[in-house]
């Protein structure tokens, strides 16, 4: 079921600017966790006013505005969350479903809270609001688990900069690289993607920053007039010239290595400029 929903969302969104926006590609950071702060913040504020505000007319109006703003923001956060959900692995999906279910329950509590308040049942409205806050807090915990424990939103290429040995290293002979075909070589523990075009070689970290897919198994494509590699797992597209993200779901660039070809040897080193 969770897989069917994921595939359905993926199919509906398709690739393109809307999905890139929902993933957070223009921000260079996942959008969903940033948007999720808005309903949590407004609902927490509503809870504080409900508990400490004195229950007068002004406080009640403020609470309704806060709850309504949170509901609007929750819609935007859900859209971004669905885009992220559409690319999750199987084990992550289960937590994703629980997270989405808890969020839906929180939204239901707050909608009911607003409705009964409009009906004049403020006390019940306050109870429903506080119940919604407890559920939203639990859901935030699940979201944190998904992001940090199960690494669904972290940069999977970040450790490359710590694992690569400093200085220049020979990784291949130029004449053993087939032109236009991605190849993989190990430098220490780090797999690298090499693409030769004529006498020029581009080298990126091979494990995709999104969820560590093997880029050397992906396709070389021309996007916006520049040569890119497209990840075989979820289609993130990285420019070979600088490792920048052309299309998500990845939001972090791919570490790029400096390349020198001397006496037929391809040598690489990591430089600060190579970390997007
Ligand atoms: S692992 Fe998801 S796009 Fe590469």
Automatic annotation (TrEMBL):
CDD domains, per the entry:
Rieske (cd03467)
Keyword Iron-sulfur found = yes
Superkingdom of source: Bacteria
Task: Check the record and name the Gene3D superfamilies matching this protein.
Answer: Rieske [2Fe-2S] iron-sulphur domain
What name does this protein carry? Rieske domain-containing protein
Cited InterPro entries: DUF2231_TM, Rieske_2Fe-2S, Rieske_2Fe-2S_sf
Q: Which organism is it from?
A: Frankia alni (strain DSM 45986 / CECT 9034 / ACN14a)
Q: Where are the transmembrane segments?
A: 65-83, 95-116
């Amino acid at each position: 079921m969770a897989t069917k929903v994921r595939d359905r969302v993926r199919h509906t969104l398709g690739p393109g600017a809307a999905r890139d926006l929902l993933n957070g590609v223009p921000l260079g950071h996942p959008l969903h966790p940033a948007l999720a702060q808005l309903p949590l913040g407004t609902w927490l504020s509503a809870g504080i006013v409900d508990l400490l505000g004195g229950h007068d007319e002004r406080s009640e109006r403020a609470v309704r505005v806060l709850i309504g703003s949170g509901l609007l923001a929750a819609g935007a956060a859900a859209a971004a969350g669905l885009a992220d959900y559409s690319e999750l692995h199987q084990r992550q999906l289960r937590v994703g479903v629980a997270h989405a279910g808890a969020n839906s329950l929180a939204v239901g509590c707050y909608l009911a809270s607003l409705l009964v308040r409009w009906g004049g049942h403020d006390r019940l409205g306050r109870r429903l609001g506080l119940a919604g806050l407890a559920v939203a807090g639990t859901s935030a915990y699940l979201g944190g688990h998904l992001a940090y424990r199960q690494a669904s939103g972290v940069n999977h290429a970040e450790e490359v900069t710590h694992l690569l040995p400093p200085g220049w290293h020979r990784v291949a002979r130029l004449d053993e690289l087939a032109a236009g075909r991605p190849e993989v070589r190990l430098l220490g523990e780090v797999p690298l993607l090499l693409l030769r075009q004529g006498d020029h070689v581009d080298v990126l970290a091979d494990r995709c920053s999104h969820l560590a897919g093997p880029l050397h198994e992906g396709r070389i494509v021309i996007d916006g007039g520049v040569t890119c590699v497209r990840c075989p797992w979820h289609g993130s597209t990285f420019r070979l010239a600088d490792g920048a993200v052309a299309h998500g779901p990845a939001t972090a660039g791919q570490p790029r290595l400096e390349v020198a070809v001397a006496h037929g040897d391809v040598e690489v080193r990591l430089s600060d400029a190579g970390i997007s």
